[in-house]
C-alpha cells in the first residue's frame, strides 16, 4: 500500500552542490565580491541569462528583492501607482510599498489570470505594472503587453512560480522589461531562499546591480557589454545601497540544479495533468485549462470547488486533511498571505468582488515533481473521496 506522500519534502540537492559547498567552506570565501572573477554567484548569473536567453541576470537575496530593485531601477516617483493582479502573494504589494509606491489591484478571473477588461480600465491611472504569473498561471501577456506598450508603461514579470514556463515558445520572465524569479524552497529550483532578475536593459540592470550592494567598484566584477559598463559609470555613487546580494553558498546550491530543470518541468507538467484529469471527473471540481500559447511548468495544482457553500468547502478541506492531504483554500483563512483583504498594510484598499469570490473556492495542493504515479493516485483518491464525503456518492454514468 502506497503511503500518503510528504508533499513538503523537496528533491535531494545534487551531489555536485555538496562538493562545491565543501570547497567554499574550506576557503571561507562566501562573499560574492571577494574573488576577482568567476565567483559562484557570477557564474550563476551568466548561466541563468544563457538559460533564459537574456543579456543580463542579477542574483539577489529573494524574488521580493528582485521586484523591489526592479521598481527602484525604473526611476518611479514617490507614490507612483503600480498595477498588480488581485491574486498574488503579499510579497508583491510589499515590494511596491518598500519602493515608496502605491499598489493598485485589478480583478482576476476563475482561471486565476488577470481580467484584461478590468486591467485595461485601470491602466491609465498607473505608472508601472507587475504581472504575477501566480502559481505559474500565465495571464494573457500578449494583450497585457499591447495595452502597456501603447501607453509606454513598463511591465515587470513576477515569474516566481514560472521558471520553465513558456508562452508561444518564449520563456516567461523575458517578455516584459524585467523578469523576477525565486529560488525559495517550494520553487522549481530550491536554495531555501534566493532570487534573480533578468533583463536586456543595460541601464536598468546597472542600477539594480549597484543598489543590490555592489559598492565602490565591485560592479566591475559583473560580466557584461560595453553598454553595461557605460551604464555602471553613469550611476556610480549616485544610488543608495540596499545590500540585497546573494551569497556564494546559495549559488553553489543553485547551479547544479540548472541541468535538472528540463526534467523537472517535464515531470511536473505530467504530474499536474494526470491529477487534473482525475479531479475533473468530479462535477464538483474544476481544474482550469491553460491558455493556448502557454506551456506550464507546475509543481502544484489549483482547482475550484463547484456548487459548494462555505460550510461544505471547509468540510472538504477538513476531510482531506484528516486523510493526510493538506488543501489550502486561499480565501478561507484570516491570515492567508494570498488573500488581498489580509493586506492591511496597503495605502489604499480595493473591492474586488470577482477575485474575492474566486479565492473563496480556489484550492491549492502541492505536487512535487518527484512524486510517483502511485503517490499521485493516493492524492487524487483522497481529494475525490473527500468530495464524496461532503456531497455524497458520485453518480455513475453509462450503466
UniProtKB/TrEMBL annotation:
Keyword Disulfide bond belongs to the record: no
Residues modified to N6-(pyridoxal phosphate)lysine: 187
GO biological process: polysaccharide biosynthetic process
GO MF annotations in UniProt: pyridoxal phosphate binding; transaminase activity
Superkingdom per UniProt: Bacteria
Active site: 187
Gene3D superfamilies per the UniProt record, alphabetical: Type I PLP-dependent aspartate aminotransferase-like (Major domain)
InterPro entries associated with the record: DegT/StrS_aminotransferase, PyrdxlP-dep_Trfase, PyrdxlP-dep_Trfase_major
Keywords: Pyridoxal phosphate
This protein's record includes keyword Glycosyltransferase: no
Protein family according to the UniProt entry: Belongs to the DegT/DnrJ/EryC1 family.
Name assigned to this protein: dTDP-4-amino-4,6-dideoxygalactose transaminase
Organism for this UniProt entry: Ruegeria conchae
